[in-house]
Specification:
The complex is a heterotrimer. Chain A is mostly helical. In chain A, 84% of the residues lie in helices and 0% in strands. Chain A has one domain. The longest helix of chain C is centred in the C-terminal third of the chain and has 43 residues. By secondary structure, chain C is mainly alpha-helical. Classes of the chains: A mainly alpha, B mainly alpha, C mainly alpha.
Chain lengths: 242, 68, 239
């Protein structure tokens, strides 16, 4: 049932005329992923459970008392989001490939860039769902309010950069023999500049430091995001060309 | 400041350690290069021998022409 | 029965090899004896090799990034082989940069390693290129392997750029910048203030650049030979 419905939406997405508007293909693909996920809920449940467990383990392992929280809670937040996101990235293209949908998508007469951004946005939305729950969880469990406008901006910039690199790399590792192990090895070093800047910025913002102390980090994140988005958009064509 | 210290600290042993690491890393890479080169040359020699023994398939150029 | 690497070594490569070995000997002797002893002590002399190897390694990664782009554009396997050769050599040279930096830091910073942004990003750069070699092992099909490796080679270069510019963006690194103004927090700074020091530094950088090019050339030839033998093997076994 799920499968048939899933296939049809792929065809719907593929049957756009050759000149189909970029954003419509993108939205169609993202919507397809979200609808499939709403039916199955295999991915988002795993990601959410994982992040709750991760917070639990971190709180015991780091003995997060009142002082430790202020300095390391954003680190816990980012590490959890990154690893939960990796869980999602590993599945998102692998499930397409295992169901044979990947070839259908690539045969569709649509811009490859639209496919990339469609996939990236569905990955990003899963990460944002996890991030939202995690923010709530940390606020309740540790009594640290993470709902600050600048913090939200940094979280947005960081997750966009991570999802960009992650989507590009997972579209390669999906063909590898050991795809689940190869993705983190490739993804973590390349995305570490983003994670590092994001953690630094978040910690500084949470500690209430003056803006001129940390404004360079979000600026660097923004530059990194723009460069990576452009690079991934160009390189994705070469990844899926067969 | 370090520049205002009169006595120059004695840390020659660290310099020697650094030189040893240079020899180890660069030397190790060169050794790995020559081991790989020797192995592949042996394999090439073996393949050439196998080709010489087996009857030549039509249209296939002899290996020696490609490897010398 | 002389099985030479597929084509005889060219006169240019032979000459380059001789030059590289001679330069390496002279550069090392200059760093050890010609340059005056810095107030930091003898360990400061490792800096000439530290920066030289970093420059050679960075050049290797730059060559790898250019070769990766050229592979994607031209689809000639020679660019794939060159990218692989350059990254291997780059890993060796930057590996020495990190190790020698740790050895210098022990007496000067009183620790082998610190999670300074510049050190961290150098380590990350090394890991990114080590992952490049892992990626190559992950794919069987030679065309796909070369294509994916090229994509990753370009992406990984962004981490090199990050390493190079991070000290200019972030003032909170403790790593000294010897050429140009040092960050305000830099610890263990020293000045290359005599002409002998400057000459030694320049000569060492040149040496490691020549050494990097020579090593990449040899590694490229080994890779080409290996692939020819593999092709021959397939031919022999398929009969």
């Amino acid at each position: 049932m799920t499968r048939i419905a899933h296939k049809t939406t792929v065809q719907e997405a593929s049957q756009q005329p050759a000149g189909a508007p970029f954003w419509r293909v993108m939205v169609a693909l993202t919507a397809k992923d979200l609808r499939a996920e709403l039916r199955g809920r295999e991915l988002i449940n795993a990601m959410l459970l994982f992040s709750v467990l991760a917070v639990l383990i971190f709180s015991f392992a780091l003995e997060l008392d009142r002082q430790a929280r202020a300095t390391s809670i954003t680190g816990v937040w980012w590490v959890t989001v990154v690893f939960a996101g990796m869980l999602g990235l590993n599945r998102s293209l692998a499930s397409e490939k295992d169901r044979g949908n990947l070839d259908a998508l690539l045969l569709a007469p649509v811009a490859r860039g639209a496919l990339f951004f469609g996939k990236m946005f569905s990955n990003l939305i899963f990460m944002w769902i996890v991030a939202a729950l995690l923010t709530l969880l940390i606020t309740v469990l540790f009594n640290e309010t993470l709902f600050l406008p600048w913090l939200a901006a940094v979280m947005l910039l960081g997750t966009v950069g991570f999802a960009t690199v992650g989507t590009l790399l997972s579209s390669m590792t999906v063909h590898a023999r050991a795809r689940e192990t190869l993705l983190p090895i490739l993804l973590l070093p390349v995305s570490l500049p983003i994670i590092l800047s994001a953690v630094r910025a978040s910690t500084a913002i949470l500690s209430g430091a003056p803006q001129e102390d940390w404004i360079a980090w979000p600026q660097m994140l923004l530059v990194a995001d723009i460069v990576l988005l452009a690079l991934a958009y160009i390189l994705f064509d070469f990844v899926v060309e067969e | 400041m370090l520049l205002q210290q009169t006595a120059i600290p004695d840390n020659l042993s660290y310099l020697l350690l650094g030189l040893a690491m240079l020899a180890l890393i660069l030397g190790g890479y060169l050794v790995s290069y020559f081991v790989r080169l020797r192995n592949i040359r042996r394999e090439a020699a073996l393949l050439e021998q196998m080709q010489a023994e087996a009857p030549e398939a039509p249209g296939v150029s002899p290996a020696s022409a490609r490897l010398t | 029965m002389a099985h030479r690497v597929s084509t005889p070594r060219s006169a240019i490569l032979t000459g380059l090899t001789v030059i590289a070995i001679l330069m390496f000997v002279v550069a090392t002797l200059m760093a050890l004896f010609y340059a005056p002893t810095d107030p930091q002590g003898m360990v400061q002399r490792i800096f000439y090799m530290h920066l030289g190897a970093f420059m050679g390694g960075s050049l290797a990664f730059l060559i790898a990034a250019i070769a990766s782009i050229l592979y994607l554009v031209k689809r000639n396997f020679k660019w794939d082989m060159m990218a692989l050769a350059a990254i291997e050599v780059g890993l060796v040279l930057t590996g020495f940069t990190i190790v020698s930096g740790a050895i210098w830091a022990r007496p000067i910073w009183n620790t082998w390693w610190t999670w300074d942004p510049r050190l961290t990003s150098a380590a990350v750069m090394w890991l990114a290129y080590a992952a490049y070699l892992m990626l190559r092992n992950g794919f069987e099909d030679p065309d796909r392997r070369a294509r994916f490796a090229a994509v990753y080679g370009i992406l990984a270069f962004s981490s090199v750029l990050f390493t190079t510019f991070i000290t200019r963006v972030r003032p909170d690194t403790i790593h000294p910048v010897v050429v140009g103004p040092s960050p305000q927090n830099a610890q263990g700074s020293f000045e290359v203030n005599s002409s002998a020091m400057r000459l030694t530094l320049i000569f060492n950088i040149l040496t490691y650049i020549v050494a990097a090019i020579t090593l990449i050339w040899y590694r490229y030839r080994l890779e080409r030979f290996t692939r020819q033998v593999q092709a021959l093997k397939m031919q022999v076994l398929s009969r």
